[in-house]
Write a structure and sequence with these properties.
Low-confidence stretches: 1-48
Number of helices: 15
CATH superfamily of the largest domain: MetI-like
Order of helices and strands: HHHHHHHHHHHHHHH
């Protein structure tokens, strides 16, 4: 409709009406981009004059304080580890930090040439590897059984496992030593593997039960309808769905077995069967050479860091799935 038609249907003179329409179309107002910036939750609230609002300033101050607190926590907890690494590569204990005063690898050579740490490293790798595999397998079975158990006391049994895990390990050293001697398992790999597996099982079974609880039962029932047995459904259908959970369980089992020292001291009576954790404790107590002890500390921490770097994605996925209660 042109201006003449508009004027014909209006009581206002044509020139006045069209001028008003043109002015209405060009009327100034806040732009959509400015409104979007002001309304965005993560952006900065900007007024029409281009200045930041007090709310935005408080948010920025809050972010700065949070980052500063996180940085302080990292420095407090990370400083001892940095000190150990620096001292391990230094020729003698000095005041230089965070770089060695006289860098050297002699401390690590002393570990293997004079302290015979290679035997302890071999013992630890063997015991921890078998313990990790055995604990992961048993937790996968027990967690599945506890999750699918149709029993009114299932929750009581699950919390009973957690109750076992809360017992102080030092209170069990005497009975563990007595049982190991009676069964002739002291100073043996079998005794170390069985004892450390038994220690990590309660909490890991409860954790694995949570992962199986997050899987809908109709998935297992569909596999059984197709002809699979319950064990086949567990192995072929459910285990692939809980792989992140298995990674978390395996990582925690490795960490618990690798760092265990009280239980090892109750079973191992001589240095030939000592693990890295036990040697590190005994050598740190004697305080013969702090630089060599620091090198042993680096050797003690290295496998745990390597395992975390390898399994970090699976562990993060498994912990996130367990926290959200969703199927992994």
């Amino acid at each position: 409709m042109d201006s003449r038609n508009v004027a014909a249907h209006s009581s206002v003179p044509p020139g006045i009406e069209m001028t008003g329409l043109r002015h209405a179309q060009r009327a100034p107002g806040p732009s959509r981009a400015a409104n979007d910036i002001a309304d965005s939750p993560g952006g900065t609230s900007v007024t029409q004059h281009g200045t930041s609002s007090p709310v935005s300033s408080r948010r920025q101050v809050g972010r700065l304080l949070t980052n500063a607190a996180l940085l302080l926590i990292i420095l407090i907890f990370g400083a001892p580890f940095v000190w150990v690494v620096v001292l391990a590569f230094d020729r003698e204990v000095g005041a230089t930090w965070p770089w060695p005063n006289d860098p050297t690898l002699d401390n690590f050579r002393t570990l293997f040439d004079k302290w015979n740490i290679g035997q302890a490293l071999e013992n630890s790798l063997l015991v921890v590897s078998v313990t990790t595999v055995l604990a992961t397998f048993l937790c996968a079975l027990a967690g599945f059984g506890l999750s699918r158990l149709a029993w009114r006391w299932t929750s009581v049994a699950a919390f009973g496992l957690l109750l076992l895990y809360t017992f102080p390990l030092s209170a069990t050293m005497v009975p563990v030593n007595d049982i190991a001697r009676r069964m002739r398992l002291d100073n043996t790999y079998q005794g170390l593997i069985l004892a450390q597996t038994a220690v990590v099982l309660p909490f890991l079974i409860y954790l694995m039960k949570g992962y199986f609880d997050a899987i809908p039962r109709h998935i297992q029932e569909a596999a059984e309808i197709d002809g699979a047995s319950r064990l086949q459904a567990w192995r072929q259908v459910l285990l692939p769905l809980v792989r992140p959970g298995l990674a978390v369980v395996a990582g925690l089992a490795f960490l618990g077995a690798w760092s265990e020292v009280l239980l090892v001291s109750a079973i191992v009576l001589g240095q030939p069967m000592a693990t890295v954790s036990l040697r590190f404790m005994t050598e740190a107590q004697t305080g013969q050479d702090f630089t060599v002890v620091a090198a042993l500390g680096v050797l003690y921490m290295a496998p745990v860091l390597a395992l975390f770097l390898v399994l970090r994605k699976a562990i993060a996925s498994g912990i996130g799935s367990a926290g959200s209660g969703q199927s992994v």
